[in-house]
Design a protein that fits this description.
The protein has 233 residues and is α/β, with parallel strands linked by helices. The chain is built from seven helices and ten strands.
């Protein structure tokens, strides 16, 4: 019997970025991905989620040496064995990076200007590298309000992923979908905002949906009974 050819069986790969406040259910949302999924946990939050408690396909980053451990993950992970990779909580990785760098200073609390440039270079290289893998990738992050200036010079506050601006903008340019995870205060149901507004940054290059249920976020093409968009932006 011939060996199973993962690459031959795989179709077009997608990249999603979802963000929301802590406890909104970003990690839980990954259970709706189709196929075999690997979780790269950057904040150890999966322990509270029954779906992931039953799984062994997990790499938990070491908070005492996050960058060394992340480099080890890149070397060890085989994307040919999975359909999906979840990079869970880049915001927490960012926090761990600056904590680690601060330990190198005299008081162990401050960060040098060079640390911010190093973070931008490292995260950009990491994302560029893993996004070359032939696998669906979901990235999650916390939510933050950002100050935005429109072409007329007017400033306003907009929700977006809690990642420093330069690597954040690179990641947002690489993904197919950016979704803000929200909860209906009346029903308690969760949903995803997929279209940019004055107060929320989002995008959807796969279809014309502006909102969707959480369980429908990863449905594309035939799953929705429609064609997938192929335009670049």
């Amino acid at each position: 019997m011939p060996a199973f050819d993962w690459k031959q069986e795989k179709s077009k790969k997608y990249r999603w970025l979802i963000y929301g406040i802590s406890g909104m259910g970003k990690t839980t949302t990954s259970q709706y991905l189709k196929g075999k999924t690997f979780l790269l946990s950057l904040d150890d939050s999966f322990h509270r989620i029954p779906f992931w408690q039953r799984k062994n396909d997990i790499w938990v980053i070491d908070p005492e040496k996050p960058i060394e451990d992340l480099n080890a993950f890149v070397e060890a992970f085989d994307p040919n064995k999975y359909d999906n990779l979840v990079i869970d909580n880049l915001s927490n990785l960012q926090k761990l990076f600056f904590i680690e760098k601060a330990k190198e200073t005299r008081n162990g609390l401050d960060n040098k200007i060079s640390d911010y440039n190093e973070w931008t270079n490292y995260l950009t290289r990491f994302i560029a590298y893993v996004f070359k893998w032939d696998i669906n990738i979901l990235v999650t992050a916390w939510e933050v309000q950002m100050k935005i200036t429109d072409p007329s010079g007017q400033e306003f506050m907009q929700y977006g992923p809690d990642i420093r601006s330069n690597p954040r903008d690179f990641i947002m340019g690489q993904v197919d979908v950016i979704a803000r995870l929200v909860r209906n205060s009346k029903t308690g149901n969760r949903g995803c905002i997929l279209a940019t507004s004055v107060d929320t940054y989002a995008k959807n290059r796969l279809d014309d949906r502006k909102l969707c249920k959480v369980e429908d976020l990863f449905k594309v093409g035939d799953d929705l009974g429609r064609k997938v968009e192929t335009s670049s932006n």
